[in-house]
């Protein structure tokens, strides 16, 4: 599986398209449990583990847009998810939970940047604190989340081919690593591309970055 940074730094997104409700449709397609917040609210730790694994990489990348420091971003993302768990009884839907997490991450990042030892100057802090910056990067991370889930939902061979391709490997190199022919790699890529386009048809994603 790709690491957090490999996923985030090899995907390139444009802004979302879509009608009202398209998020729900896509989330269903990529297998996101609509009842997971109810389960977490009841204190089911296994559901929280699934939620954590889904949103931790998204929040890490979101925090890194502010901090430009991977280790600090990981800490901020983890703390935000812990705060969510502690306040889990206050949430009844995924939308409010996501909003809470993004706000917590943003505020924690700004607090770090405002500390005397932080490297950012005043103009940078004002930029990342702006509403437009927040909306822009929330859209990017939500798109990243949906693409990641879509890739994970592919059949095993297709998923492996796509992930190797995202790391910059050529067909011959992928074939050698997986013990299959370059033609099989080419076919798997083609089929994966078709499946991803179908799953993500309501999101304008630059899939060319995969291949």
From TrEMBL:
Q: Which UniProt keywords apply?
A: Sigma factor, Transcription, Transcription regulation
Question: What positions does the domain HTH luxR-type occupy?
Answer: 168-195
> Which molecular function GO terms apply here?
DNA binding; sigma factor activity
Q: Which Pfam families match?
A: Sigma70_r2 (PF04542), Sigma70_r4_2 (PF08281)
One example of a Gene Ontology biological process annotation: DNA-templated transcription initiation
Question: What InterPro entries does the database record attribute to this sequence?
Answer: RNA_pol_sigma-70-like (IPR039425), RNA_pol_sigma-70_dom (IPR014284), RNA_pol_sigma70_bacteroid (IPR014327), RNA_pol_sigma70_r2 (IPR007627), RNA_pol_sigma70_r4_t2 (IPR013249), RNA_pol_sigma_r2 (IPR013325), RNA_pol_sigma_r3/r4-like (IPR013324), Tscrpt_reg_LuxR_C (IPR000792)
Family that this chain belongs to: Belongs to the sigma-70 factor family. ECF subfamily.
- Protein name, entry field: RNA polymerase sigma-70 factor
